[in-house]
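Batch manifest line 239
LIGAND: iron/sulfur cluster
JOB: complex structure
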Amino acid sequence: MPRDKKARRSTTRAGKAEKRRRGSRESAGTLRERARAIVAALADAHPARIELDFSNPLELAVATILSAQCTDKRVNEVTRELFQKYRSAADYAAADPEVFQEEIRSTGFFRNKTRSILSFAQALVDKHGGAVPDSMEQLVELPGIGRKTANVILGSGFGKNEGVVVDTHVKRVSRRLGLSDEEDPEKIERELMELVPRGEWSDFGLRMVQHGRYTCIARKPRCDGCALEELCPSAYSFD
Ligand code: SF4
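JOB STATUS: finished
ARTIFACT:
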């Protein structure tokens, strides 16, 4: 598209977004409708997929713990060998922390992550016969597992919709989209659960992560070409 035409289109869109912002005292019904439209537009724009490699809920749990402050690509490099060596919760529980910490060192925060993974595995052995439980209540009781990780395990490991994953991307995008103005991830999650149909919770979370990673990026969101631009009160407000 010629540059001036593109600029004109962008200005018109920015004007529309500004109108949306000014009239942003949305009724609950309108917000709900907009949220449904966002769910549909996201489904067209992004696959509901997790970028961590895993073949069972235990591997998913370990990979998710390792992914804190680390790229999924790096985690996948590390787990390629790790998952060959540690095949059960008992294997992790019996690991030498000094050795384990070297094996996961490149994912960062390796001492904390070693503590979390080995205590998580020990609790699985002690309380669940070595299996990863498939309920939110039981998962969040385990060391190293908060609601975010539990939602990843339940959604992608067991295909259950028990909540919405709220990581740093989902938090930022939810706020920009005006779906929540909360800061606390659990409060954001509760608001998203009110707005998004239950059957979509897991996929919606995964798609929001993708959207935050590749389109609605932290420093300079790519509003021009964003599939949610017509539905977003923050569009073009970052120039
Ligand atoms: S990229 Fe822009 S238009 Fe899209 S969701 Fe983010 S702020 Fe809104």
